[in-house]
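Good day; I would like, with your permission, to put a structural problem before you. A protein sequence and the structure tokens that stand for its backbone fold form the material at issue. Thank you for your consideration; the sequence and its tokens are set out here:
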Amino acid sequence: MTVLDIQSVSKAYNGHQALKDVSIQIPQGSIFGLLGPNGAGKTTLIRIITRIIEQDSGEIFLNGARITTRMVREIGYLPEERGLYKKMKVGEQLLYLAQLRGMSKTEATKRIYEWLERLSLTSWIRKKVEDLSKGMAQKVQFIATVLHQPQLLILDEPFSGFDPVNANLIKDEILRLRDQGATIIFSTHRMESVEELCDHIALINKSEKILEGPKIEIKNQFKDGTYIITHRHSLNGSSGFDVLSSSLDEFGRLATMIRDTEGKGSNAILQSIMQNTEVYSFIEKVPTINEIFIKSVKEEIHA
């Protein structure tokens, strides 16, 4: 089931085309990576989804209904440009934001204490936001984003400002929210986070969507017949591939990267190699999201 359906959305500013005919479908219960280089149009798309700005053309549907400003209250949005009232106390701040989302004081207070405990912030509830470290303030803003239990979350660079321990804590909470049924749009430049968290991805470059789909399927599309072999003797006499590089691994064994240039397949290549040397491991090199990102953007530049 599609939770958010973006249909042919375009937006221009003073002659600059920020988005051009972008269509994306966000599946229910997924963590969806919205990727792209700086200036690609990601932030513009997020601002259109959250009704901060209007698109020039196209439509956006949330759970099958054309999205309205009222429906945006049901979305949890963590912007890259964080914004808390520095003079307000943490508890007061969270209660105020929760009530803006339509929560009762009783229910909001209960959830605030639960979340502060989960993120080890309980002792800071009566402290002013300006007294918090950057990481603590980021946690408070994350709580404000998820407090009303939105079924759709938009997280723009959610790990910005966190040390590794707290980044891992937030990562676990994102996965927990997904497992509880939330759909999460995750915009980031940290490809290792996309690799670890996302089920689906879309790549926007120069205002247009150039890639979209399940992460596993996209990684399979970008395989190019490259394998990494650790072995005992030279590969001389073996056939069906080109050697890309060769070195010694930490155990002093030969480690060679090859590419299947003749389309023979892994079994035929391995059989050919095993006739000439002992093989310790034979692994297909699956491209990383970072490699796919760079390759796709470069191809667009040279297109």
In short: Residues 90-145 form one domain.
